[in-house]
């Protein structure tokens, strides 16, 4: 990838050890991440984002990179690659984590990313699926083992709110049919138990029977008994979306949004929802609380004090003077 910004002006090094290139420090950072036993998805995230930093400044040393250089790079990448605000902020987050590591390890004296601001994002309600769309997706699947399995996956996502990585991390031992719970390891390798309904339980029991005695311990397998990959299912979900006439195509995370919204609409507790989803703060769950506020108009029509008084015979006409 060509360099996206002008060459950096050399300034005095912070330490003698900083004769190493930025690319070397990035490799040290990856070693640090491995030593912390970060999840494979987290490692993949840092590699995907920091490769752009290396492409631009890989031959430089960290001590000569300034806040201005980083801002310049952010703007260049956003323009050249047509990144959305969310994609750009992911890059900024990775860069800040990397330079925080350098500062913590005392490899730099000044952290240029400390004041690297994220771009302002529009606050939007999560996109959810309607009952009709879910029905159309289910009807788009085939009458085969794969089709039954995919219907079971769709309904599992809808009934549990699992992340895609958590769904495909399921094993035969992680599903407890007696307590109706799935043991998952979410972000940060944090263990939690996600409940599911008796209705889904019956469906999963039937799938397990159809699955047979595959050699793999993975819960979700293909017709050959090998573990089903997330990318395989995502591709088929796009096909189902086209068959169902849903545009844009459905991403697995929309089921998570739908689960959270319907859970609250059906009287579920926001605190319980937070635990089920594996959110560390209530701020994430609050998005769904705001979304269910769109039901306020309907609730107001039945609970309006004025409407109530009118039903009791209140004359709402203002007295003329």
**Spans of 5+ residues with little confidence (pLDDT < 50)?**
7-17
**What characterizes the major β-sheet?**
3 strands, antiparallel
**Relative helix content:** 40-55%
| H/E element sequence | HHHHHHHEEEHHHHHHH
Our estimate of the beta-strand percent is under 5%
The N- to C-terminal Cα distance equals: 79 Å
Radius of gyration, whole Å: 26 Å
CATH superfamily of the largest domain, called what? Intergrase catalytic core
CATH class assignment of the largest domain:
Mainly Alpha
Q: Kindly report the spatial arrangement of strands forming the biggest sheet.
A: 1-2-3
Stated plainly, the CATH topology of the largest domain is called hpI Integrase, Chain A
CATH architecture field of the largest domain: Orthogonal Bundle
Helix-and-strand structural type: mainly alpha
Q: How confident overall, as mean pLDDT?
A: 84
Counted up, domains total 2
Give the CA-based shape: globular
Number of strands: 3
Number of helices: 14
TL;DR of this structure?
This protein has 321 residues and is mostly helical.
Characterization of this structure:
The chain has helices at residues 22-35, 40-57, 67-80, 85-104, 131-139, 145-160, 164-167, 198-211, 230-244, 252-265, 270-277, 282-292, 296-303, 305-311, and strands at 175-176, 181-185, 191-195. It has 321 residues and is mainly alpha-helical. It folds into 2 domains: 16-104, DNA polymerase, domain 1, CATH 1.10.150; 131-297, hpI Integrase, Chain A. Strands 1-2-3 form a 3-stranded antiparallel β-sheet. Helix 6 (145-160) crosses helix 10 (252-265) and helix 11 (270-277) packs across helix 12. The model is unreliable at 7-17 (pLDDT under 50).
